[in-house]
Structure formats: structure tokens, C-alpha cells
């Protein structure tokens, strides 16, 4: 394609038409992959070519503007190249403005980071276009901060919007920052609230990072917002967007990112008075010269091998432990007791059974008196030990406390975690202490205190799918595990039914269906695990029926974490309840669930929910197939 | 093959409460060597070191713990400091047990006072004052205030924890070393009332310190695991020379033997540690007590071979050791 310079406007508009038509018909890739690089080179230094290119794009009819523009933005090698190619198109053309500032940012979210950088860099490079940048930032922040958007939009879209916000922030200059400082602050406050309210850790983290970035931009001196979260590649990538300066543009006085970084770092220490204490600067004494005059040589040291660290002794009996934990003032002894408690409980089951409920009560209310490493884990392991030693009374106590007044969220979630760990221990073959089982047919559920269970669910459901479709060969490919009676059998019902009983009865401090949806989510996941572990127990069918009703009642809950839990419940159900019982007792409910799953697969905004629903449908298909193969 | 650590030469029992302070008085030729001990029940016991029994008991602090006893020139004049906010001066000559005079300190802390003889019949006493960070220096027996040592505003030193008055020789100016709650040690010039140098030795409060004026070197112990050894250079500046790491945390008392050859530390881990002073070489760990050792003190016997080390502990006993006596 070769242009002859000199008043060829008409032919250019013809070219624009062709270009537009080709693009809208889907041949965008072919034509633009040839056109754009050529144009980029040509427009690098030649103004005439630049103007021609602008005219070319401007003349594309409105109805075909979008694909052309999209193609250009995607193919341009950088924001300045895009700027040369498009000129002030967004200012002149309404459709282009709409596509660039609204559609690509707010309505679509499939574009790559490079595209975002191009787009926003393009907006920031010219003073005529900068107002759009500010407008875009405001709209992005509005979306970011709206609680309904946070709840209902997919995580991928939220991540896209967060990235766009960070890139916009990196392009903002000081005077612009001043003018919209107040708005930034208000939107940040609202936005961070909705983000932290979410159950999904990814959303929370996004909210934290964006809030920190905004705060560092608007408060360049003075303390900035700093959250605690785990750093990983994703967070580092997001933070890197904030730190870039726009490439090679002639705009002076860019926001000083280094200055911001220092303000981000540790708060300035308050210096001491001018009396200036000299901090310890150790000088090595000149030892060689003293050697001659050393009259210490005639002082012969004694044997000091007995000089070891002092350790407080832990009590040896369970009742002594109870005394120490309830009333002892000696913190060393308290620490030693907490550390030794689990093994004592396991070694003395008979003695523990006598005081099990009391011990469970003490442990549930135990708070950290001194700073011990791993206190939470120690307490949890002791609780699990008590629960497995004397399941029925302790389970009764714990489940009743779950629904009682005046417990903190942490304590209620603790109760759930302990029930799960104990159930797992009881239902697996007798190998206490080894939670990793070699070649186990059941996947292990590793629950660490406070960890996010949603990753585990993915793994578990995957394994379930695998296990359902596996054909066992006659050869022994797995290690033979010693068999022992399933202790969970007799107590499964005691763990399960009390938990599910009162979920719709709100108390003054605890409303599962209202504010405390975090606990509801955890409760649902707990029920799913208990159901899963109850395979081969007598009560499993009754549990299944109750669980299906529970799922049905909550199926339209707005929180995606809860919905994921409900779908896991259905998976566990299909896994654990024997097929015959499923079909005999729960046919109607199953059919209803089937139709609900269909709806979820199509319409649920959350990707994980859709995937889980799909897996459930697959499981149900497998069930049907299995039935057909078995002669009834 | 190193010898096992020695046992105590003898143990004084009968104090009846935790022993917080000890002081020997063994210089008199015709007198019986004597050990003064102050206990938590407010009594000061005068132990006869020949019979190992209590000769006299002094009750002058209203049953509040006595945490410092010092003699003022011979065993007839005793100074004691207690938690009843008083410093008492006793006259013990001829079997009397009377409180001659007392100074009201108005201080509710635990900082032991420090005595220095500046002239015949005149002493300087440094003690923690009523205001939080201040140290007051009084002249005894006239009880006139020489100066009040106030740190700068905003210095945030906390309470003074331990004090040591010293002077290089009889004619030079008296100086004061004070260890504070924030872990720093300050050298004060008493006559001018000015601080000469400040050194941050510890992260935790300085529990105790002692100073060797001949070598211009001092040592301080804290509630952490580190002993800090520092020195004073010609410009009267303090610098840290080295630190020594202990096995267990907490030191309540440090004292250097008068011949400057060894030093003893009293630990919260119930052990007494002996170090060589020259190079901080660990020499012995004396393990006898079953509770925190609150104080250690060396005797002032004229004959080196008779020298003793006493340690008072929370288990109500005072252990007496003869260690490195013949070097």
C-alpha cells in the first residue's frame, strides 16, 4: 500500500471505508497486522504521514469504528506509537470516545495488560486528552467502589479494573492529583470497605493493594495506608504498575515515584535530642598486646557444662493441666502446659474422658497469655485430641456453643475447624499423627488454622471426579493399608445434625443468614466435609436428605463463597450416599437439584461456581450411567 | 579436665524472707567479721560469720522490703534503704540498735542508693529522686542537697535503675554512673550537675552496673541475655568494648571484687556466674539456689585467703563461697 503525498483526501476516505468493512467482517487481524507496523514506521518522524494516518482513522464510518479502533489499540507497539497513529481521535469522534473510555475499560475485561497500558498511556500523552484520563479514573473508581459490583462481577473483571486504576494513577500528575484528591479519598474509603467485606481472599487482596496505592499517591508526606497480605507474583505485578513513569515523553515534572517509595517505607524515626547517645559500636579490643600481661591465666575455670537453659516443667497429669490453665500465675508453667497438652491427652484417654467437657470448655476460651510460637495450632491440636478421645459429649458441647451468644467469629470458626479435623482423624485408619497417608484412596484434607479452604475444594472435587471415573484393575497397585473399624460411624450424626439445626434462627449477636455470611460460608463447607467423610456410615442417608434440604433453602444466596460451599455439599452427597439410597429416598430432590445445577452452570457470575456445578452434573451423569450398567 | 564447681563454704539460713541486699564488714582487727543482710520482710540481719548465726536484727522500715545496706566507715554506722521511702542511718556501736537519722526519699522505685566517702566524716549519697527521671545527690550526715541530676526534656530515659558514685582519687571530682530504664548509662558530673556522656548499652532496662575506676572500665547487666562491657576514654566518653552473651536471661546484680580480678553476677536463673575481669573469661557457674539470686557481694577481708563471696536469693538463703581466694 503506497500513498502519493499531495491532497488525496478522497482516496484516503475510500481506504478508511475498506478498512472498516474488512475489520467489521472479522478480518481485522490480517489487514491490521500488515498495516499497523508499516504505519508505525512511517509515522515515526514524518508529520505528513501522521496526519494521513489520523485522517484515515477519522474517516472510518461510525458503525465500523469499533473493530478498527480495537485492532489499532491491540496492535500498537506502545502508547506513544498509538498516539502517533490515532492523534486526537477520541476528542473528535464520539464513537471513538465511547469505545476507548467506556467500552474497553468498563464493559470488556478480556484485554491484556499491554493493551491497557497502550490505551491509558495514549490518553495521558496529550493535554487535550488528559481530561479523559481523569474522567476514566473517576469512572473506574466508581465501579471499583460500588458494593454491588464487588459482589456480582467476576473476579477477573475486578482484577482488570484494578489494573486499570493503578495504571491511571501512575500517569496522573501533581496538579491533577490535587484537584481530585478529595474524590480519590472518598472513593477509596468506600471501595476498601466493600472489598474487605468479601469472602474471597483474592478480592480482599485486590482491594488492599489498590487502596494502598491510592493512599500513597494522595498522601505523599505523612503516614500511608499499609495492609498486611501475602506477597506473591500477582501482587508484585500489580504494584509495579504504579511505579512506572510514562516512556520518553517530553512532559516535565512527572510524579516523583522514588519519593513516594521512600514515603511508603518505614515511618521516619524520631531522632533523639542533640545530646546524641552513641549507639553501641563495638570495638574489638586488641587482644594480642594483652597476652603478655595476662595475669588471668592463673585463674583456672571450673567445669561449666551444667550451665544450660532453664526450662519450666510441664505437669504430668491431665487434672494438673486443668489447674494450671485455669488459675496459675506462673507463665513459664502455663507455656509448658500448653505445649505438652496434646500428647498428654492422647496418652491418657481414660483420664481425659473423665474431664473431657471441662477441658473442651477451657480450650475453647483459652487465650494467649504469653507469646508462644504456634499458639493457635497448639490449641487446635489439643482440642482435636479431646474431641477424638471422647467424641459424643464434646461434640455435643461444641455444637451447642457454636450457636450460643457472645462468641467471637474466630471461636465459632474454630469450633468448625476442630470438628472437621477430628472427623477426619476418626474416619481414617488408625495412624494418629501421620496425616499424610501413602497412596491413600481418599484425598487428604489439610486444614491449617485460618487458611483459605477454597483451594482445597478444587483439589478435592478434582480428585473425586478422578476417583469416580477410575476403573480398578485387579492388580494391587496401591499399598495395603491396615483396616480398622471406622470410629466416625457412631458419632457422625452427633457432629452433623446439631450444626445444621439452628442455622435459620438468629441470635442477638449472631445472625448466620444476615451479616455473618462469612461464618455461614465456613459452616457450609464444614457440612460438605462432614458429609464427605461420612461415607460408609450408617447415618449417611439421613444426613444426605437433610443436607439436600439445606442446600435447597440456601441456593440463591448472594455470597459466592456460600454458593461454592453448597455445590461442594452436593458433590459430597453424590460421593458418599450409596447410589441405591439416593434414588430411592431422594429422587424428587435430586431432580430439583439437577435443574438448579443447570441454571448455575449457565447464569452464575462466579467462575468457580460454574465449574463446580458442571462437575456435579458430570457426577450425576456418571450415576445414571452406573445405574444403567447394573442390572436392576 | 576441669574441676566441678565448688559447693558453698556455708549457708546462712534464718532470714525468713527473700534476701535483697548484702554487705560485708570484716576489716576490724578485733571484731568478729560480720555480714549485713536486708530482707523483704523489712528486717536487717547482722550475721556473725564465725558462728553463722544472726547476732542482731534491726527493724526500722516498717516491714517494708529493705533493698540496700551499706556501712559508713566500720560496722558501727549503717545505712539502709527500704521501700517505705526512707533511708535510715543507724548507730550500732556498743550493742545499740537505734536509728539515728533518716532521709525521706519520696521515691517508690527499686533503685539502690550509692555511697562515696569524700572526706573524713563526709559522704555523698546518690539516690533516685521523687520526679521520674531524676537523681538526687545528698551530702551526709548533713543531709544537704548537692545537686539534682535531671536529664533533658524528652529524653525518655525512664526511672534510674542503678547508681554508682566514684572518683578517680581523693582530690578529683565525684562522678556518677546511672543506668536507666531505657537501657542507657549516663555519666554525670556531680559538682556541675551536667551529663558528660550517654551510652545505649541494652535494649531492656539496666538492672545493675559496676565500675572499675583504675581501668576506667565498667560492666552492666540487664533483663536480657547480654552483659555489656564499656569503657571511659580520655574525653570522658563512654564506649562499648564488648558484650557477653549469657545462657539465660536476667541479671539482678553485678559486683567486681575489690582487687579487680574477678567479678560475680547474680542471675534470675538461680545461678551465680564468675568471670575474670580482665578479659571477661567465664570462670565458674555456681548452682545452689532454687530461686532468683537477688544480690552478690564480695567481702573486704584484709587477708586475701579469707575472702568470701556472698549471694542472697529469693529462697531465703544466703550462700557463702570461697572462690579464687588465693590468687
Write up this protein:
Chain A: GO terms for molecular function: Hsp90 protein binding; telomeric DNA binding. Chain A: Residues 129-224 form the TELO2 ARM repeat domain. Chain A: Residues 285-294 have a biased composition (Acidic residues). The complex is a heterodimer of chains A (632) and B (327). Chain A is mostly helical. Among the domains of chain A are: 12-243; 494-631, Alpha Horseshoe (Leucine-rich Repeat Variant). Helices cover 65% and strands 0% of the residues of chain A. Chain A has helices at residues 9-43, 47-58, 65-75, 79-86, 89-92, 94-107, 113-124, 130-145, 147-152, 155-171, 174-179, 181-197, 201-218, 233-242, 257-264, 287-290, 318-327, 331-347, 349-354, 356-365, 375-389, 391-402, 409-427, 454-469, 492-501, 517-533, 540-554, 560-576, 579-585, 587-603, 607-629, and one strand at residues 278-279. The relative contact order of chain A is 0.05. Residues 246-293, 432-454 and 470-477 of chain A have low confidence and may be disordered. Chain B is mainly beta. Chain B has a domain at 19-105: Thrombin, subunit H, CATH 2.40.10. Chain B has strands at 10-12, 19-25, 34-39, 43-48, 53-59, 66-71, 77-82, 86-91, 98-104, 114-119, 122-128, 135-140, 144-149, 160-166, 175-180, 184-189, 194-200, 206-212, 217-222, 226-232, 238-245, 251-256, 262-267, 271-276, 281-287, 293-298, 309-313, 318-321. In chain B, β20 (226-232) and β21 form a beta hairpin. Chain B is globular. The mean pLDDT of chain B is 90. Chain A binds chain B through residues 272-273, 275-285, 287, 290, 294-296, 298-304, 306-310, and chain B through 2-6, 152-155, 184, 195, 197-201, 228, 237-243, 247-248, 261-262, 269-271, 276, 278-279, 281-285, 287, 324, 327.
Core attributes:
heterodimer; A: 632 residues; mainly alpha; Leucine-rich Repeat Variant; globular; B: 327 residues; mainly beta; Thrombin, subunit H; four-stranded antiparallel sheet; 0% helix
Amino acid at each position: 500500500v503506497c500513498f502519493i503525498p499531495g491532497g488525496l483526501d478522497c482516496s484516503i476516505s475510500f481506504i478508511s471505508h475498506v478498512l472498516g468493512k474488512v475489520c467489521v467482517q472479522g478480518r481485522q487481524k490480517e489487514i491490521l497486522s500488515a498495516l499497523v507496523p508499516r504505519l508505525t514506521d512511517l509515522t515515526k518522524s514524518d508529520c505528513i504521514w501522521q496526519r494521513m494516518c489520523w485522517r484515515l482513522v477519522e474517516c472510518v464510518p461510525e458503525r465500523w469504528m469499533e473493530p478498527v479502533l480495537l485492532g489499532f489499540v491491540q496492535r500498537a507497539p506502545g502508547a506513544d506509537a498509538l498516539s502517533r497513529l490515532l492523534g486526537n481521535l477520541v476528542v473528535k469522534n464520539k464513537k471513538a470516545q465511547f469505545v476507548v473510555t467506556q467500552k474497553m475499560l468498563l464493559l470488556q475485561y478480556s484485554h491484556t495488560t499491554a493493551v491497557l497500558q497502550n490505551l491509558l498511556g495514549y490518553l495521558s500523552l496529550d493535554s487535550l486528552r488528559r481530561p479523559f484520563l481523569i474522567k476514566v479514573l473517576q469512572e473506574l473508581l466508581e465501579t471499583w467502589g460500588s458494593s454491588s459490583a464487588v459482589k456480582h462481577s467476576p473476579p477477573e473483571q475486578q482484577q482488570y479494573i484494578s489494573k486499570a486504576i493503578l495504571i491511571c494513577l501512575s500517569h496522573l500528575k501533581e496538579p491533577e492529583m490535587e484537584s481530585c484528591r478529595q474524590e480519590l479519598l472518598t472513593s477509596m474509603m468506600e471501595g476498601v470497605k466493600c472489598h474487605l467485606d468479601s469472602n474471597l481472599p483474592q478480592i480482599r487482596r485486590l482491594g488492599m493493594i489498590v487502596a494502598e496505592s491510592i493512599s500513597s499517591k494522595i498522601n505523599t508526606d505523612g503516614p500511608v495506608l499499609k495492609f498486611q497480605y501475602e506477597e506473591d507474583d500477582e501482587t508484585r505485578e500489580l504494584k509495579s504498575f504504579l511505579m512506572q513513569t510514562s516512556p520518553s515523553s517530553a512532559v516535565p515534572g512527572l510524579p516523583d515515584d522514588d519519593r513516594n517509595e521512600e514515603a511508603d517505607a518505614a515511618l521516619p524515626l524520631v531522632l533523639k535530642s542533640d545530646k546524641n547517645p552513641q549507639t553501641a559500636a563495638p570495638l574489638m579490643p586488641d587482644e594480642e598486646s594483652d597476652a603478655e600481661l595476662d595475669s588471668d591465666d592463673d585463674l583456672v575455670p571450673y567445669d561449666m557444662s551444667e550451665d544450660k537453659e532453664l526450662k519450666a516443667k510441664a505437669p504430668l497429669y491431665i487434672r494438673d493441666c486443668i489447674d494450671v490453665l485455669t488459675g496459675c500465675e506462673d507463665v513459664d508453667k502455663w507455656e509448658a502446659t500448653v505445649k505438652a497438652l496434646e500428647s498428654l491427652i492422647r496418652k491418657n484417654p481414660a483420664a481425659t474422658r473423665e474431664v473431657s467437657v471441662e477441658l473442651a470448655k477451657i480450650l475453647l476460651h483459652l487465650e494467649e497469655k504469653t507469646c508462644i510460637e504456634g499458639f493457635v495450632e497448639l490449641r487446635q491440636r489439643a482440642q482435636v485430641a479431646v474431641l477424638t478421645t471422647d467424641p459424643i459429649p464434646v461434640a455435643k458441647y461444641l455444637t451447642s456453643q457454636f450457636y450460643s451468644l457472645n462468641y467471637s467469629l474466630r471461636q465459632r470458626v474454630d469450633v468448625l475447624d476442630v470438628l472437621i479435623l477430628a472427623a477426619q482423624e476418626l474416619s481414617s485408619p488408625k495412624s494418629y499423627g501421620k496425616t499424610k497417608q501413602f497412596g491413600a484412596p481418599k484425598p487428604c484434607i489439610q486444614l491449617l488454622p485460618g487458611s483459605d479452604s477454597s483451594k482445597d475444594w478444587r483439589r478435592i472435587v478434582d480428585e473425586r471426579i478422578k476417583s469416580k471415573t477410575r476403573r480398578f484393575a485387579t492388580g494391587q497397585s496401591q499399598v495395603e493399608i491396615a483396616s480398622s473399624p471406622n470410629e466416625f460411624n457412631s458419632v457422625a450424626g452427633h457432629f452433623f445434625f446439631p450444626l445444621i439445626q439452628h442455622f435459620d434462627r438468629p441470635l442477638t449477636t449472631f445472625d448466620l443468614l444476615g451479616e455473618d455470611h462469612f461464618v455461614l460460608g465456613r459452616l457450609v463447607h464444614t457440612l460438605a466435609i462432614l458429609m464427605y467423610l461420612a461415607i460408609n456410615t450408617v447415618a449417611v442417608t439421613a444426613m444426605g436428605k437433610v443436607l439436600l434440604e439445606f442446600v435447597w433453602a440456601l441456593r440463591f444466596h448472594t455470597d459466592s463463597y456460600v454458593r461454592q460451599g453448597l455445590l461442594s455439599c452436593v458433590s459430597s452427597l453424590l460421593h458418599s450416599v450409596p447410589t441405591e439410597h439416593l434414588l430411592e429416598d431422594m429422587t424428587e430432590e435430586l431432580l430439583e437439584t439437577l435443574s438448579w445445577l443447570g441454571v448455575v452452570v449457565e447464569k452464575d457470575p462466579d467462575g468457580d461456581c460454574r465449574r463446580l456445578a458442571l462437575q456435579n452434573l458430570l457426577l450425576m451423569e456418571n450415576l445414571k450411567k452406573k445405574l444403567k450398567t447394573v442390572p436392576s | 579436665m576441669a574441676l566441678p564447681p565448688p559447693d558453698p563454704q556455708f549457708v546462712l539460713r534464718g532470714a525468713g524472707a527473700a534476701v535483697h541486699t548484702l554487705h560485708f564488714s570484716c576489716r576490724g582487727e578485733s571484731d568478729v567479721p560480720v555480714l549485713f543482710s536486708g530482707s523483704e520482710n523489712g528486717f536487717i540481719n547482722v550475721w556473725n560469720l564465725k558462728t553463722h548465726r544472726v547476732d542482731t536484727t534491726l527493724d526500722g522500715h516498717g516491714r517494708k522490703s529493705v533493698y540496700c545496706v551499706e556501712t559508713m566507715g566500720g560496722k558501727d554506722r549503717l545505712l539502709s534503704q527500704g521501700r517505705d521511702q526512707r533511708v535510715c542511718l543507724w548507730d550500732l556501736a556498743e550493742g545499740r540498735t537505734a536509728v539515728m537519722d533518716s532521709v525521706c526519699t519520696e521515691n517508690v522505685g527499686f533503685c539502690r542508693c550509692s555511697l562515696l566517702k569524700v572526706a573524713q566524716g563526709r559522704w555523698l549519697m546518690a539516690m533516685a529522686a521523687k520526679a521520674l527521671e531524676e537523681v538526687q545527690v545528698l551530702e551526709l550526715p548533713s543531709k544537704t542537697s548537692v545537686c539534682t541530676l535531671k536529664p533533658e526534656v524528652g529524653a525518655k530515659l525512664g526511672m534510674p535503675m542503678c547508681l554508682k558514685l566514684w572518683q578517680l582519687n581523693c582530690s578529683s571530682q565525684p562522678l556518677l554512673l546511672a543506668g536507666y530504664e531505657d537501657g542507657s548509662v549516663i555519666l554525670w558530673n556531680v559538682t556541675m550537675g551536667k551529663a558528660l556522656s550517654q551510652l545505649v548499652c541494652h535494649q531492656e532496662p539496666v538492672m545493675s552496673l559496676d565500675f572499675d575506676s583504675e581501668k576506667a572500665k565498667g560492666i552492666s547487666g540487664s533483663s536480657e541475655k547480654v552483659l555489656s562491657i564499656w569503657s571511659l576514654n580520655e574525653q570522658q566518653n563512654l564506649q562499648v568494648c564488648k558484650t557477653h552473651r549469657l545462657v539465660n536471661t536476667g541479671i539482678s546484680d553485678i559486683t567486681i571484687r575489690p582487687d579487680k580480678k574477678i567479678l560475680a553476677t547474680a542471675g534470675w536463673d538461680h545461678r551465680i556466674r564468675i568471670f575474670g575481669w580482665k578479659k571477661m573469661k567465664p570462670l565458674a557457674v555456681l548452682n545452689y539456689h532454687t530461686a532468683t539470686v537477688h544480690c552478690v557481694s564480695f567481702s573486704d577481708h584484709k587477708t586475701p585467703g579469707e575472702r568470701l563471696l556472698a549471694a542472697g536469693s529469693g529462697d531465703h538463703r544466703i550462700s557463702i563461697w570461697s572462690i579464687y581466694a588465693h590468687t
